[in-house]
Amino acid sequence: MSDSEVAPRGLQTRGRRFWKDVTAGYALNVDERELLTEVCRSLDGCEALAAAVKRDGLTVAGSTGQLRMHPAVGELRATRALVGRLLAQLGLPDADGGTLDSPLRARARAAARKRWAGERHCAA
Question: What is the pLDDT of residues 23-70, one digit of tens each?
Fold first, then answer.
């Protein structure tokens, strides 16, 4: 196993597993390994946040005892979104040879589908 295939220190189970899966199937350059490292760290962060919500529940007591949303819920949502952006930036091909759309490309594709659907409707 080359140095580039060894998972970075500090990764937890999910991050190490993803690192191993990706590096087993793809040869990555330095920039891609850095992105992969951040994806793996973010996946580990998702696991920790999800565990906190599972342990404490969706709501916690606020400063005056009122129920409020667990702070980890919003952080989990943001971290999952970050993972999606990082994976899109990493651009690993899927089984069909395509790549995960960036958020900008996904919005553009959705707008085009909507536009084409509207034009087909008007032509009918």
Answer: 999 999 999 999 999 999 999 999 999 999 999 999 999 999 999 999
**9 SS3 class:** coil
**84 — alpha (psi -120 to 50), left (phi > 0) or beta?**
alpha
Q: Give the separation between CA 23 and CA 6, rounded to whole angstroms.
A: 9
Helix (H, G, I), strand (E, B) or coil at 35: helix
Q: Work out how many domains the chain is built from and give that number.
A: 1
Rounded (5°) CA angle 88-117-123: 155
Domain extent at residue 30? 3-92
Q: Are strands 67-69 and 59-61 parallel, antiparallel or unpaired?
A: antiparallel
| Interval 80-124: pLDDT, tens | 999 999 999 999 887 665 555 555 566 666 777 788 887 666 655
CA 69 to CA 121: how far, in whole Å? 43
Return d(Cα 89, Cα 42) in angstroms, integer.
14
Quick check: is 119 in a domain?
A: no
